[in-house]
Design brief:
Elements (H helix, E strand, L loop, with lengths): L15 H8 L4 E5 L4 E2 L16 E4 L3 E10 L11 E8 L4 E6 L14 E8 L5 E7 L3
Antiparallel strand pairs: 1-2, 1-3, 4-5, 4-7, 5-6, 7-8
The chain binds zinc ion.
Zinc ion (ZN) binds next to loops.
Length: 137
């Protein structure tokens, strides 16, 4: 873990509950009880109704691949191409930017709308990142 060379997120007061849940290997998202819906990225208030009385709820960690891009050129030190950047459509509604793992990084292997599930990578003592892999069929 000490050799992790990629950029790390800097948790803010708004995102700290998200990262704390990641550390527990739980995907937790902000939820508005007035709108009865999740939202993401984390904010202190609901982006639909501006309710500040939001909750954090644990999600299934399941969704579908909304879109992806295969990266063939290293953008920064620590990245080993090819790798797959992706947006996952979570079953609970919001979309999450992530990496798709556990599948060959080729356009022949990856299709939009495939079912995916979260997997966890403990990259430092403080930070665990949520990645997604295809659900075994
Ligand atoms: Zn709301």
């Amino acid at each position: 873990m000490a050799d992790y060379a990629k950029p790390l997120p800097y948790p803010s007061p708004e995102t700290q509950p998200f990262w704390d849940a990641c550390k527990r290997h739980e995907l937790s998202l902000p939820y508005c009880p007035t709108c009865e819906r999740f939202f993401f990225y984390p904010r202190k208030f609901c982006p639909e109704c501006f309710n500040w009385d939001i909750e954090w709820r644990t999600c299934s960690g399941r969704g579908t691949l909304y879109t992806f891009a295969i990266q063939f050129r290293p953008q920064m030190p620590g990245f080993t191409p090819p790798y797959v950047t992706a947006i996952v459509q979570l079953d609970e509604g919001p979309r999450l930017m992530t990496n798709l793992v556990g599948i060959e990084a080729s356009p022949e292997a990856i299709r939009c709308d495939i079912p995916v599930e979260v997997v966890w990578e403990d990259v430092t003592d403080e930070i665990t990142l949520p990645f997604f892999r295809p659900v075994a069929s």
